[in-house]
Design brief:
Order of helices and strands: HEEEEEEEEEE
Strand content: 15-25%
Largest sheet: 10 strands, mixed
Number of helices: 1
Structural class: mainly beta
Helix content: under 10%
Radius of gyration: 17 Å
Length: 178
């Protein structure tokens, strides 16, 4: 089991670059030790690890971009304090249900491709510009028309484009492109 504490023992400023904390591709299995970093980052890259649980992110209130793609996460959880997130990438994990993100009112880009999601749900309070659900076994893709998406929806290999109307801020479906 490799943790962030292990990386910090080797190098106390590991992964730090301006407003980005890059801990990608380090073989991490846990986020233990993340609490040792200060809340100065707007981007946290944890992609390409072996992380199974989202934890120790509650102090990062300034975080705008969270990259957790290509891990082993099964549940979206513990993001209640990260209300400034604008980009959230959970692609290539083992997520079965969209949950615990409805409070992220700043979220504009949600990437959930190549997971195990069967149902599009719990997105009603979000005002997304991009929603990527490619490679999921979605059972009822028609529900996509009921979402408040202002731009592009990627679903089962098809890109659905929505017209962005700045005046009423609701998307109008304008076509499917393969």
């Amino acid at each position: 089991m490799k943790t962030i504490n292990d990386l910090l023992k080797e190098n106390p400023i590991f992964g730090v670059s301006d407003s980005v904390l890059d801990l990608s591709n380090q073989g991490l299995t846990s986020l233990e030790g993340l609490e040792n970093y200060e809340d100065v980052f707007d981007t946290l890259d944890l992609s390409g690890n072996e992380i199974t649980k989202i934890e120790n992110l509650d102090k990062f209130k300034k975080l705008k971009n969270l990259d957790l793609r290509n891990n082993k996460i099964q549940t979206i959880e513990n993001l209640t304090e990260n209300i400034n997130l604008r980009i959230l990438d959970f692609s290539k994990n083992q997520i079965e249900k969209i949950q615990n993100i409805n409070h992220l009112s700043e979220l504009g880009y949600l990437y959930l491709s190549e997971n195990q999601i069967f149902k599009i749900e719990n997105l009603s309070n979000l005002n997304l510009f991009t929603l990527d659900l490619y490679g999921n076994p979605i059972q009822n893709p028609k529900i996509i028309e009921d979402l408040n998406v202002r731009g592009i929806v990627i679903l089962t290999g098809k890109i659905e484009i929505f017209n962005i109307d700045a005046e009423d801020q609701y998307a109008r479906y304008i076509g499917i492109y393969e």
